[in-house]
Design goal:
Layout: H1 3-15, E1 21-22, H2 31-42, H3 60-70, E2 72-76, H4 87-100, E3 104-105, E4 107-109, H5 116-126, E5 130-134, H6 135-138, H7 148-157, E6 161-164, H8 177-186, E7 192-194, H9 202-211, E8 216-218, H10 225-228, H11 238-243, E9 248-249, H12 261-269, H13 276-290
Parallel strand pairs: 1-2, 2-3, 4-5, 5-6, 6-7, 7-8, 8-9
InterPro entries: ACMSD, Amidohydro-rel, Metal_Hydrolase
GO cellular component, one term: cytoplasm
GO molecular function, one term: carboxy-lyase activity
Length: 298
């Protein structure tokens, strides 16, 4: 990260009259887990399917300072398990990270396993602000009966869940819109944030967002040249982006992105047909409202 990049990022949000950015899709994990994630990307594993260089491969403290230098007011520590008996440990780590990093929204996760409701309840009681559910990596059905109580508790609490449920970059056994539709029929007030705009099923997840008052979409990697090579956002859906504007929030996937942070922002600002009011909502105000984040005092 250079001073020039930080200045370029700051010019984008300051030019819109914003106090900074709220990024709902960033990853901070225990070092052993992050190293394994980076090794997986390095190997172009089957869920990645292509060369994917990690742009911000630095130590944890440097990554935090990088986001702060960009003017990111709040960010997340999205953690996720790929097997049983992993989620509770990740939640403990993430809660400690949030205590030490007050601009990080305290994040938790879960997996379909006995006891999931217990550690999810503990996370809610401890003040978690956000959950992460990675349907693709976890390879589980979100409608698994082991998660019935979990979804009910989260729905009652109103705590948002960032969920990777679309079929990009590679489809999983339980990805796609239909499992989410079934989940929402049982829990219509569930505050989901669909990661990556639901790529590549953009249109169907826009349908879900517009039909379900509690559902949001995050912009993570959408609209970028990297994604447009394989899974471009359909031009015919741009009008509905405006319709869903109050429920679209910015996400970057930092640090695991194969381009610069500023590129994620410029991709969003270049979406045809949107205006500054839409951008102010997406880059800051929608998430500020969702997470009840106050504006800085004058």
């Amino acid at each position: 990260m250079s001073d020039d990049e930080a200045a370029a990022v700051q010019r984008i949000w300051s030019g819109l009259g914003l106090p900074g950015i709220i990024d709902v899709h960033t990853h901070f994990m225990p070092k052993s887990v992050m190293d394994k994630v980076w090794n997986y990307f390095d190997s172009a594993g089957p869920m990645v399917g292509r060369s994917w260089p990690i742009t911000y491969r630095t130590d944890e403290a440097h990554r935090v300072e990088t986001l702060r230098s960009f003017g990111v007011r709040r960010f997340t520590s999205l953690v996720y398990p790929h097997k049983p008996q992993m989620a509770a440990w990740l939640n403990q780590w993430s809660a400690e990270f949030a205590r030490e990093t007050p601009d990080c929204l305290s994040t938790a996760t879960f997996y379909p396993e006995p006891g999931a409701a217990d550690y999810v309840g503990a996370a809610i009681h401890a003040g978690t602000r956000l959950f992460k559910a990675h349907i693709q990596v976890g390879d589980y059905d979100p409608n698994d009966p082991l998660l019935d109580d979990v979804w009910g508790m989260i729905s009652d609490s109103g705590i948002p869940v960032v969920t990777h449920c679309g079929s990009g970059p590679q489809p999983g056994r339980f990805t796609g819109p239909e499992p989410v539709r079934r989940l929402l029929r049982r829990h219509p007030r569930l505050p989901l944030i669909v990661a990556h705009m639901g790529m590549p099923e953009y249109g169907e997840f826009l349908d879900i967002c517009l039909d379900s008052a509690a559902v949001h979409l995050d912009t993570t990697m959408a609209f970028t040249a990297f994604v447009d090579e394989m899974m471009p956002f359909p031009a015919g859906e741009q009008a509905r982006l405006r319709d869903a504007g109050e429920r679209i929030v910015f996400g970057s996937d930092f640090p695991n992105i194969p381009y610069r942070y500023r590129d994620a922002l410029t991709a969003v600002t270049a979406v045809p047909g949107i205006d500054d009011g839409w951008l102010r909502g997406v880059l800051h105000d929608n998430a500020a409202r969702l997470f009840e984040i106050a504006l800085p005092s004058a």
